[in-house]
Amino acid sequence: MAGNDWINSYLEAILDVGPGLDDAKSSLLLRERGRFSPTRYFVEEVITGFDETDLHRSWIRAQATRSPQERNTRLENMCWRIWNLARQKKQLEGEAVQRMAKRRQERERGRREATADMSEDLSEGEKGDTVSDLSAHGDHTRARLPRINSVDAMETWVSQQKGKKLYIVLISLHGLIRGENMELGRDSDTGGQVKYVVELARALGSTPGVYRVDLLTRQVSAPDVDWSYGEPTEMLTPRNSEDCMDEMGESSGAYIIRIPFGPKDKYIPKELLWPHIPEFVDGAFNHIIQMSSVLGEQVGGGKPVWPIAIHGHYADAGDAAALLSGALNVPMLFTGHSLGRDKLEQLLKQGRLSRDEINKTYKIMRRIEAEELSLDASEIVITSTRQEIEEQWRLYDGFDPILERKLRARIRRNVSCYGRFMPRMAIIPPGMEFHHIVPVDGDMDGETEGNEDHPSSPDPHIWTEIMRFFTNPRKPMILALARPDPKKNITTLVKAFGECRPLRELANLTLIMGNRDGIDEMSSTNASVLLSVIKLIDKYDLYGQVAYPKHHRQSDVPDIYRLAAKTKGVFINPAFIEPFGLTLIEAAAHGLPMVATKNGGPVDIHRVLDNGLLIDPHDQQSIADALLKLVAGKQLWAKCRQNGLKNIHLFSWPEHCKSYLTRIASCKPRYPQWLKDDDGGETSESDSPGDSLRDIHDISLNLKFSLDGEKNGSSGNDNSLESEGNASDRKSKIENAVLAWSKGVLKEPRKAGTTDKADQNTSSGKFPAVRRRKHIFVISVDYDATTGLLEAIRKIFEAVGKEKTEGSIGFILSTSLTISEINSFLVSGGFSPNDFDAFICNSGSDLYYSTLNPEDGPFVLDFYYHSHVEYRWGGEGLRKTLIRWVASVADKKAENEEKIVTAAEQLSTNYCYAFTVQKPGMVTPVKELRKLLRIQALRCHVIYCQNSTRINVIPVLASRSQALRYLYLRWGVELSKMVVFVGECGDTDYEGLLGGLHKSVILKGACCSVSNQVHANRSYPLSDVMPFDSPNIVETPEDFTSSDVRDSLESLGILKA
Q1: Spatial distance between the Cα atoms of 999 and 1034, rounded to a whole number of angstroms
Q2: What is the mean pLDDT of residues 728-744?
Q3: Separation CA 1001–CA 999 (nearest Å)
Q4: Chain mean pLDDT for the chain
Q5: Contact 999, 980 (CB under 8 A)
Q6: What is the C-alpha end-to-end distance of the chain, expressed in Å?
Q7: Which pairing describes strands 594-597 and 612-615: parallel, antiparallel, or unpaired?
Q8: DSSP per residue over 53-88, as a string?
Q9: Could you tell me where the beta strands, DSSP code E, fall in 753-903?
């Protein structure tokens, strides 16, 4: 255990009082334990390691106690605490082993089933199980994606970008983000990620081919933060404005766009943002639609310019990016920065908090689910190093390196993956600015003298602070820059330096270990590391050879690198594991060779720069040998320096942006499909419905202009309904009717929610009625019996009877039912389909409109909605897996092992696989079914509905809340003009219906019995994501009446009192 010198004194104290522990006066507890040796127990059980911070504080108190008896008592108590911690440590280790074994078994089973479904013979490239194979995780830096190796290559790439006008959206929600004077380190949310996303946006905005970059974040207008964080828009000035003058336009460049969401006038930590993310999504959705329209007028020839990609940073932004990607039907990218599963494992190993306490503090399960959703929705996951993929992403259900390799091989061979998808892992190191760095060419022995024209500048102050430690400051400097943290392995470095006499004679050692005023004011862990370093300096008599200054500014760091380079020194990072290693790149830019750990990111950096040596951080001799080799070998030192300076541009922002845009270009473009037919009202042959639909015959079975199928007692997807004799006429009728409904978007974009009289009077047949309403009421009350839903609808209709008659309010019915069930339900309740403008069916996988044309029947399907939500839909491969799961779920205690779940073919559609649950209390929790499907690379949205009596499996980015966003995008139905009615609880997609810009009315007493079964086994508590303090949510009294409903609407400002 690094930095535990206090333990030595504690051990000595135990030895000193050892006999006293066996006295008759010693505690009864110790006597009851028999011949207990605290010394032996400490050495055998505790020295292997646990977090001793609290014990250290106790030991300080015990050491300060004057009374021998009280001191002995304190030491006894510490022995008991050590015993308890060690026992807890063993228990945690056992639990960790069980978790890993269970995860391995689930992975192997899922992999076998997925491989069995993909029945075609595997190639040799698919059969390998080597996790370390590069193609399983990302691209080799030298093979699959050649890096720029010359100025000519960069100029060639730049010329290829000319003429492109790309729009990119970046999202980073937490922390305080601004373009200049960033308050890095102000709190735990404002750190390296803030700097990275700002510099990425700035660099992309200056890249040829990129017209505009929007960095979306939270608008913060709190009294305890600077006013600049409340500004809606901030332009990021490019570093080299001369390079992008020819690309400038009216709205071009990079911008920080601050979207208001969450508590007003309050800056809150990221753990409390989860309930408010839907509100951000709606605000960002509105901004992107408006900006796409503006850019279309400027550079798109009048057609909207949609984002080429939406890039989420960290889990919260990944969750938002997934929803925006689905709502807009554009590609998504994701960068995790730090990952929830890895943090959960680390916290569990520490043993200080239980899983429930960890979740309560960090909302870790909600974070993990957001990261899983990001894997489901992302085209590309960008990482900094291969270590992040191999050690962290492989912990997730949605990413299996071995299965990813098999799928990638099948894609290269143009072989079906049977509905299975895996995001591509792309290793793109963060960029850096190098234009201001001038490598030092002189040395300490031959310094360039100034003259009258070019006087030499005085040495930086930090040089004096460092060199005052040295007897001979002209010797090469070994530089380490790291916090005094045990993980940074500084004590092993000092030992290696102290025990290698040739190294001590040739070089000095400089340790930049943060800032401190006094050791007593440091945290116990950092203080113990620093004390260990000081004791090692004394042990090896390193005075005059090791520098460890107390203070330095961030602006001093480049000067520290320059000093080390001037002495022909070496930079070292001996950490046990280094996720990336940004300091290695900074050092290389100043001409310093490196010695770095072989664990983590430095391996990738060394592969690119080839400017040093890798070492085993646990091998003290390896560290000394590598340092001596570079310090003593002048030719090797010069070669490493030259390689570093030659290749450092590979980590520049232009190179980062080049790799970034190359990756995006490999994604299949996606955007709202109906926009193809907007221009001139004509449909080209290539864009005809027959071409855009994969099978017009299959779609026709769902696109019902009458309910003939119901009259004949047939299901919605029964192929027997269509005969070959009338298939052609049927197809023609469908195409003509669909086109009459699908060309409803005007060529000129209009503000959401606006209508004109001409539209209302002359175009009533062209546009659905939902477009003409002042407000839209969405009834999403999830009763498990239709009688309760009928009663709720009647009360809502009665509450707004006058407005309903006037036509200012329209209604949408949003349920888990099929359109056939809805029709029967309406008829039985005495309602007409024309009482509603639209119907969101099958938990959001289907969208229908009502129609007044008797020839068309009561409902018309929006088939463009299917093309909007079908992303990564597993189709037949998913259906087979679900059928296999249904067969495996049985009540083994019952006679003949009765089935718990059965397939409901009559309720299923092309984009919704429905299952009936016979025994809701025994069904697999929703989180377990989602996990099973993700392990097999099947991306879908599993919803338990109707009080767990039905399971709907729909496309991953489809939902009832996403359908509302589609209506805004498609028809301009403004989200803030919608009112969603829900019960006290509902289906497992219930949380998505509450947050956002729309208003919500919770009908108290409705669906109150649902939560016991549906939400009991959630992966995270519903309370973690419910925006209880939102002004957009009101509740009715228990056993509400129509007047209660109207009072709630008046309180929201929807109706006038």
Answers
A1: 8
A2: 47
A3: 7
A4: 80
A5: yes
A6: 70
A7: parallel
A8: HHHHHHHHHHHT---HHHHHHHHHHHHHHHHHHHHH
A9: 775-779, 809-814, 838-841, 846-850, 859-861, 890-891, 898-899, 901-903
Contact criterion met (CB below 8 Å) for 816 and 807: no
Q: Are 1002 and 1033 in contact (CB under 8 A)?
A: yes
Angle between helices 634-647 and 620-632 (to 10 degrees): 90
In the DSSP assignment, the letter for residue 578 is: B
Angle at alpha carbon of residue 270, lines to 269 and 276, rounded to 5°: 105
CATH node for 475-651: 3.40.50.2000
Tokens 């919770």 correspond to 1002
CA-atom Rg of the chain in angstroms: 33
Cα 596 to Cα 222, 555, 743: the distances in Å are: 43, 24, 61
Task: Give 719's contacts (C-beta < 8 A, 6+ positions apart).
Answer: 701
Structure tokens given for 250: 């009216």
Alpha-carbon span 119 to 35, nearest angstrom = 65
pLDDT tens-digit map of 484-522: 888 889 999 999 999 999 999 999 999 999 888 888 888
Distance CA 917, CA 946 (A): 10
Residue 99: which residues within 8 A CB-CB, separation 6 or more?
Answer: none
Q: Are β-strands 309-313 and 332-335 bridged in parallel, bridged antiparallel, or unpaired?
A: parallel
The CATH homologous superfamily for domain 162-239+249-427 is Glycogen Phosphorylase B; (3.40.50.2000)
Instruction: Name the helix (H) or strand (E) containing 311.
Output: strand 309-313
Measure the CA angle with vertex 696, ends 695 and 701; round to 5°: 105
Would you say 517 and 500 are in contact if contact means Cβ atoms under 8 Å apart? no
Cα within 13 Å of Cα(343), Cβ side: 16
Q: What is the largest CA-CA distance in the chain?
A: 104
Give the model's pLDDT for residue 518: 85
The answer to whether the beta carbons of residues 128 and 115 sit under 8 Å apart is no
Model confidence at 386, in pLDDT bands (50, 70, 90)? Answer: confident
Which tokens hold the place of 657? 């942006």
Q: How far apart are CA 891 and CA 873, in angstroms?
A: 30
Banded model confidence at residue 718, pLDDT cuts 50, 70, 90: very low
Measured CA to CA, the distance from residue 68 to residue 322 in angstroms comes to 64
- Please state, in angstroms and rounded to a whole number, the distance separating the CA atoms of residues 431 and 162: 22
Pick 331 or 920 by higher pLDDT: 331
3-state secondary structure 423-450: CEEEECCCCECCCCCCCCCCCCCCCCCC
Global pTM value: 0.79
Query: Which residues of the chain does CATH 3.40.50.2000 include?
Result: 162-239+249-427, 475-651
- pLDDT tens digits for 18-71? 444 444 444 434 433 444 455 544 544 444 444 455 555 566 666 666 777 776
Q: How far apart, in whole angstroms, are the C-alpha atoms of residue 104 and residue 84?
A: 30
